[in-house]
Amino acid sequence: MKVLVAVKRVVDYNVKVRVKADNSGVDLANVKMSMNPFCEIAVEEAVRLKEKGVASEIVVVTIGPATAQEQLRTALALGADRAILVESADELNSLAVAKLLKAVVDKEQPQLVIMGKQAIDSDNNQTGQMLGALTGFGQGTFASKVEVAGDKVNVTREIDGGLQTVALSLPAIVTTDLRLNEPRYASLPNIMKAKKKPLETVTPSDLGVSTASTVKTLKVEAPATRSAGIKVKSVAELVEKLKNEAKVI
Amino acid sequence: MTILVIAEHTNAALAPATLNTVAAAAKIGGDIHVLVAGSACGAAADAAGKIAGVAKVLVADNAAFAHQLPENVAPLVAELGKGYSHILAAATSNGKNILPRVAAALDVDQISEIIAVESADTFKRPIYAGNAIATVQSSAAVKVITVRATGFDPVAAEGGSAAVEAVGGAADAGKSAFVGEELAKSDRPELTAAKIVVSGGRGMQNGDNFKHLYALADKLGAAVGASRAAVDAGFVPNDMQVGQTGKIVAPQLYIAVGISGAIQHLAGMKDSKVIVAINKDEEAPIFQVADYGLVADLFEAVPELEKLV
Fold it and tell me: Can you state the subunit structure given in the record (chain B) (predicted)?
């Protein structure tokens, strides 16, 4: 079974982002970029499926600038077999990304598509579901457990009230939540080997996809800051403040 | 302009987040219709009809919609939603699961988790885990939007008398089936709707120690939450997680116990009216957002707090 994993290059999890002075966006000059954490979980899940003998080939795809090759090489070092970069310097919305992924799905014909539930930059949480609509595949979003059984995949999902399990006919789409697995680190020999694995570059126009968007960002601002309050010395003082000053209990 | 709000419900009852979503629709302006898609969901539909400001309730009652499977519900919403100016749903796990599938079916972008309505086509939403707020404008024919409940005060659950109309449409797409669910059972208020939330972090040390928080919560009528660290460590289940990728809460009082205050946690609770932090590390970042900080051993402070409130 072929597995397609979609990943995104984003600002590193540990970077504290700052809004640009002209409110046009956040300042990404000279900040560390990494693979989106949810995408790392997606790669790990695919590699585990291959180790179990369920997956036969792992194709990793990203849509982004030329520098996103770094994240593809990371995925190759973690165990993906080959990579596709859909090169676009523009910041694309989820629908455009889903359309590009649909074109890749049509070409590659994977049985399972695994991707992160959301990217930690745009926080959209849309692309997997949109790819579901465009391909007609079933979707198992926010997955904490994935089990392939015959022509079906059982996905346990983290939902507001607890956990839900659904059975999806293959091909299907899985989006990962935090507790699906704990991603491994790439070993040095695997990082070296990854440099030799195939990486193909295509453009949105090669795939015949328009990336036009109906949403534009007018401005980006820093959130209202919350200033630190006071330190109380005792539980008794805390209760007194909550009762008489804040009046919340 | 007519807005379609997708009800969040359990078939038997309407979920509170629906009222916040209707509030966002009211800010946009225009007639508000509510779709209740479910199975044997008459009670939820009746409740939707009573919401203040709702003009019409559409009910799609079909076994295929019982568990809100997106493969079945999204085509229905897309079909019904075509003629509307906006389609809104709460940014719950269910709304987030279904609405992007609707947007793609309609070939429009979706706007996620709005926290403010600037005008009928312009909205504010957090990005980068709440470290920046983007103002976005949509030129889509149908604006498909999820609404962060904490950004909008709920409308009244009573006072309306909307007509309820049955609708048909898409049914079982045959792609997916519900297998089962494990839902947390609790007599405490729901985390996202509670007026007081008591949350524990890694400092709780183990799941058993959460009993101190449950005791305090029961005295206060509060819900109990947790940081990602506590959930990842297996102390408590995932449905208790407060944070960027868990639940977003904004209660009157948030008591953070043994939580260091990672940015991802702050993103889920910093809109709370009053924040109390109890932590033995006086350098913990949680104190930078707390109105009242208490540097103390939680195993002494929490039982004492329980006695005094």
Answer: Heterodimer of an alpha and a beta subunit.
